[in-house]
Amino acid sequence: MEEKKVVLIPQKVAGEDFQSLRSDFLVLEPERHNEPFSKQELDKYLPIADAIVAITEIDAEMIAKSLRLKVIVANGAGFDNIDITAANALKIPVINIPDTTAYATAELALALMLNVSRRVSEADRELHRRIDNVEEFFAIGRNPGRTLNGKNLGIIGLGHIGRQLAELCWPMKMNIFYHSRNRLPLVQEKGIRYLSLDELLKISDVVSIHCPLNDSTRNMINYDALMKMKSGAILINTARGGIVDYDAMIYFLETGKLSGVGLDVYPEEPKIPSKLLLMPQAVLTPHIGTNTIETRQQMADAISSVIREVLGNPGSPVTKDIVNPEIYASKEEIQSLLPGFNGENE
Q1: Cis bond leading into 98, ω under 30°?
Q2: Rounded to an integer, what distance in angstroms lies between the CA atom of residue 297 and that of residue 35?
Q3: What is each CA distance from 224 to 202, 259, 261, in whole angstroms?
Q4: What domain range includes position 252?
Q5: CATH number for position 75
Q6: Catalytic site residues?
Q7: pLDDT exceeds 80 at position 132
Q8: What are residue 233's phi and psi, to 5 degrees?
Q9: Contact yes or no for 112/138 (Cβ under 8 A)
C-alpha cells in the first residue's frame, strides 16, 4: 500500500474542518485550537511534510527543513507570513485562496465604514455605561454621525476584496475611486475611476485599504500620505497593519484631521496601541475579517482542494492563485500558462 502523503497544519483554527483530507492524507494538526505546534514538534514533522497550511509564520528555516515539501497554501488571501524568497529557492509553489475571503472581508470593511460614520459603537458604549440613566442620550441632534450616500470612497488595492467592496457600495450611491499598481482596462472599471494615490487621498471621504503588505506598501500610508487626506475623512484598514504608520494615524485622530478609523489589523498583533483603545472615534476589531462560520469552512474546503490538486498531479504547474509563478519559468513562459498574469497578485 502506498504511504499517505503528509499535510502539516501548524496551528488548529476554530471553524476550519479539514476532515475531508483525512481519508487520503495523513493530517498533522495540534489537538487544541490556537495552540500551535512547538518548535520540537515542528522539527519532527517538517521533514516529512508534503504540504503545509500557512496559518502561522512559515520562515526560511522551516522551509529549508521541509525536505519533501510540494506546496505551501496560505490560510486566506494574505501571504506575508510566508518567506517567498525561500520558497522560490526550492521551487515550491505558494498558493493563496483570495476567492473565499473576499466577501467576508469586504463586508467587514463596509460594517466598519457604517459604524464609524454613524458613530454606532460610541452610542452603544454610552448606553451600556449609563444603564440607569439613559434619557440624556436620546436628545435630538446629539453627537450626529454622517451618511455615506453621495460620499467619495477611495479603495487602495482593487483585488478580489477591493472589487467586492465596490460592489457592496454601489447601491449606496457612493462615488467610487481606486488606486492599484495596475490600472484595469477601461471596459472593466464599470463605474469606478482610477486615480493616483495622491489624488485619491485628497478627494476621498472614506479611504479603505485592500492591498497586500510587501516592500512597496509597507508604511505606504505614512504621515505625508495622511496629511493629504481630507479634513474629517475616515480611514478603514482590514488589510495589514504594516501598511499604515499607526503613530501618525493616531496623531491625526488626536488633531481631528481624521474623524474616525475602523481597524481590523495592527502592526504587531495581538498588541494594539494603547492610545487607540482609549479613543471613542476608533472602532477596533481583533482581525476578524474572515471570521464567519461560512467563510471559515469555505477556506478549509478551498485549501483542501488545492492540496488535492497539487499532490495528486506531481510535476504539473499550478495555474490558479499562485503567488510565485516565477518558480516555473520566465515571465513570457508564465504568460503562456497564465494569460492574465502581470507579475502581481493583489
Answers
A1: no
A2: 19
A3: 12, 17, 17
A4: 101-284
A5: 3.40.50.720
A6: 240, 269, 287
A7: no
A8: -70, 165
A9: no
